[in-house]
Write a structure and sequence with these properties.
Elements lengths: L7 E10 L2 E11 L4 E5 L6 H8 L7 E6 L2 E2 L5 H7 L1 E3 L12 H12 L4 H5 L3 H20 L15 H14 L4 E5 L7 H17 L3 E5 L3 H7 L2 E6 L2 E6 L1 H5 L2 H6 L8
Helix pairs in contact: 3-5, 3-6, 5-6
The chain binds adenosine-5'-triphosphate.
GO molecular function: ATP binding; ATP hydrolysis activity; L-isoleucine transmembrane transporter activity; L-phenylalanine transmembrane transporter activity; L-valine transmembrane transporter activity
Protein name: ABC transporter ATP-binding protein
InterPro entries: AAA+_ATPase, ABC_AA/LPS_Transport, ABC_transporter-like_ATP-bd, BCA_ABC_TP_C, P-loop_NTPase
Length: about 260
């Protein structure tokens, strides 16, 4: 990737499920370090877009370039290794595992030490394991979750479970972080803390972030630019100010949420 090239380029990317065009030839560009929103009414194609970016679905049209290289044909774990991590709309933690193990699992998926050394329990395995544990604890500290590290994930309060999901996504060392409705189900206080956390991790880890969110004050408050999807089409793109006043966006939302 040259210095001025976007980190992510979606060129005419779309996908059909049978007769339904869920996403239709969209163009999205994210520059290194940007925090960008992806909004739209229910069923607009936002999560489907994330699924195409992470190798869950293969686009039926267009191409996706990440860090200058095509993502075509990659499986989700390969996309993670290239540097794209995500969280899910419905929290997906290993509920019965400890908070610490939930983060360690993310390291395991990237582990450099070989399967053989792990089976044979060679010294390199223990070194790798110890390093993973130390790094995982570091992440938990950043998210103020270290005091819960031996607790089962399912026992954490809801807002903390969402934070743990983000911690786990970050443990994979992404360049691009995709957050799918991270504030869903949070109370205003938790949402406010989440906004601060997103701003903080973005700086600390020099991340580029794409954020799906229905909480308009949150999106308008922290995103530099916003893409708006409606019925699988990209209907607008621009700064929060532009989006707030965009006739097509107001129409898609029936003028309510965005104008507030
Ligand atoms: N695997 C699939 N098979 C068939 N249709 C699908 C599949 N995945 C998504 N769709 C359809 O694609 C459209 C877009 O769905 P998507 O979940 O991306 O919307 P969304 O914008 O994320 O909505 P929400 O805000 O409700 O989460 C919907 O009509 C949905 O039913």
């Amino acid at each position: 990737m040259t210095k001025n090239e976007p980190l992510l380029q979606m060129k005419n990317v779309g996908i059909s499920f049978g007769g339904l065009k869920a996403v239709s030839a969209i163009d999205v560009e994210l520059n290194q370090g940007e925090l960008i929103g992806l909004i739209g009414p229910n069923g607009a194609g936002k999560t489907t877009t994330f699924n195409m970016l992470t190798g869950v679905y293969a686009p039926t049209e267009g191409e996706i370039l990440f860090d200058g290289k095509s993502l075509k044909g990659l499986q989700p774990f390969q996309v993670t290794r290239r540097g794209i991590s995500r969280t899910f709309q419905n929290i997906r933690l290993f509920e019965e595992l400890s908070v610490l193990d939930n983060v360690k699992v993310a390291y395991h998926s990237l582990a450099k030490h070989s399967m053989l050394s792990s089976i044979l329990r060679l010294p390199s395995h223990f070194k790798g394991e110890k390093e993973m544990e130390e790094k995982s604890i570091e992440f938990l500290k950043i998210f103020q979750l270290d005091r819960y590290m031996n607790e089962k994930a399912k026992n954490l309060p809801y807002g903390q479970q969402r934070r743990l999901e983000i911690a786990r996504a970050l443990a994979a060392g992404p360049k691009l972080l995709l957050l799918d409705e991270p504030a869903a189900g949070m109370n205003p206080q938790e949402t406010h803390e989440l906004m601060e956390l997103i701003a903080f991790i973005r700086k600390k880890f020099q991340l580029t972030i794409l954020l799906i969110e229905h909480d308009m004050p949150l999106v308008m408050g922290i995103c530099e630019r916003i893409y708006v999807l409606d019925h699988g089409q990209l209907i607008a793109e621009g700064t929060p100010e532009v989006i707030r006043n965009h006739p097509k966006v107001i129409e898609a939302y029936l003028g309510e949420e965005v104008a507030e």
